[in-house]
Amino acid sequence: MKNLLKYIVSRVLLTIPMLFILLSLVFVVLRVMPGDPVSAMLGDHAPAHVIREKQLELGLDKPIFVQYLNYLGQIARFDLGESMVYKQRVVDTMKDKLPATVELTVIAMIFTLLIGIPLGAFAASKRRSARDFGIRLYGNIVYCIPVYWMGLMLQLLFGIFLNWLPIAGRTSARTFVTDFARSNFYIIDTIVAGNWAALGDVLIHIFLPSLTLGITLSGVFLRLTRANMLDTLKSDYVLAARARGIPEKHVVYRHALKNAFIPILTMLGLQFATLLAGAILTESTFSWPGIGRLLLERIYLRDYPVIQGVIVVYALLVSLISMLVDIIYAFIDPRVKY
Amino acid sequence: MTSETETGKVQAKPEPILQIKKLCIDYPIAIGTVQAVRDVSIDLYDGEALGLVGESGCGKSTLGLAILDLVREPGKIASGEILYHGRDILKMPKAEVLALRGQGVAMVFQNPLTSLNPLMKIKDHFLETIQQHKPDILKKDALRMTAELLEELGIDKKRMDDYPHQLSGGMRQRIMIALGLIMNPDIIIADEPTTSLDVIVEAGFVDLLNRLRMKFELSIILITHNLGLVAEIADRIVVMYGGKIMEEGTAEMIFHRPYHPYTAGLINCVPNIDVDQAKLTTMAGSPPDLVHPPKGCRFQPRCPKALERCAVEEPQLLTYRDGRRAACWLYPEEF
Q: Are B241 and B326 in contact (CB under 8 A)?
């Protein structure tokens, strides 16, 4: 346990240089990019003195290097600064949006795993059959489909033709968020408040966007699970288990799948970044009020501090997940020790 | 064992507990069909230790797996019967085959390092097996049974809580044997059980197997290319080449008076410590292509004593006066 703590501390320390490099890149790229917050806000025809005043106010008149050092100093004090467009702290803009994104991606990951792993395992156990072929075809197709197109099609099917599910937002207009919202993780909040009607509403709203995101990524996990299962099904301990009279069902799911799960877990950590990227598009398709949509909005406005802040949060999320994955390893695989 | 008289005439021979009859196993591959096992018939009697020897790829491991109906994909048992106490394993309902595996016939595999599930504790391997075959046994009784058996094999019962990677190769081999014995099978098939062990551990393994054989009244099928190992354990030896039986007889016959040139060649390849040799003896040529097996006798292209006839006609497996069987034109029926 002491080693585990040491490991966590070293991982946390390692994220510092990573964040530094990432922020430096983003800082430079944003300022090299055409356009700036002042012209985005005032338009091209504003009088020169108004533009000048605004630049002074935002500190954009200073040399870029000074701006950079100021920003780093701010970050070192755990301060993400203030939006350049709205009078709002960056942390406050993200406060209710980050939980929306986390909720979306976590549920999407659950869909991905629920679809990808059993299908992959089943395909492997029925190798070369028509069912195996069908499952692999599904995997390839969903992998190729862009997430926003998939989102539109599912909206059309479930939202318009069948009229089963809502296609936008986190709640319907008749659900009063203020009744339960505390942490802004609506699923948790509604459960804590015991507001079951609101929970139902929240769940049917999250269903379609997270399913969309989950399906597009399930292809990767399906293929990975299938490939790993084919390996583990050929292993000696699987043959030995069969020779002891263990039924095929247990051999496949207890022996082979559990061993195949280790590389899948690695992939899960890595694919989380893909999932967040997919979430940006999904949030736009489903008008989901998350940080992905916030990021897009603020890129149009060239709201530098918010863009940088959101990217910091993304980076922290990804490294947090990969750290969690490493810790989970130790619980699944007895050969891994910290 | 068997009550054979000097002349080889059989007097009220007991029923074999395992009878393999005319077994053929095929592996369909892209360029044709590999005839991995052809027309193999073997009887195994109660309490007997049978050695199955031959080079790599002669079909001996496939044959071992076939007894549990576990031939690896895409291999298929093309024809033949495998009778366990008179009942054909290949025609049994699935549930009965599952019950037979481990309980009637157990298998100890080549590589003890990879034959245990790395994510499962030692005791869970045993619990899983016991509860599969005898669901009524309480967990604590199952654990006690396991502990007793492990102690019997010289493994501290505390090791039950370990994972496979925490144990040495020799220990894992003994655990594989214990896993084989836990349901009290009457036949143990040991497939190259010592290949991944060093010689000292191997010697210990031989003693252990001989001791267990007496104690648990086991019949053993020992599959190996290691003639030294067969010599120390087996009563009777079957020599296979290219998926076919070349010769079969008691250990004494095979080692001291081999008929078949292949058997003689195999024995010749065992280095002798008393002879000063600079080079190890090897057998010329390589195992046959089993997609297109040689015409006539399968060993004929490599045989130092091959006759013209050998390349044309395949010799039948004949039973000779001393009780052995051999498939070779050098020995006429009355020999």
A: no
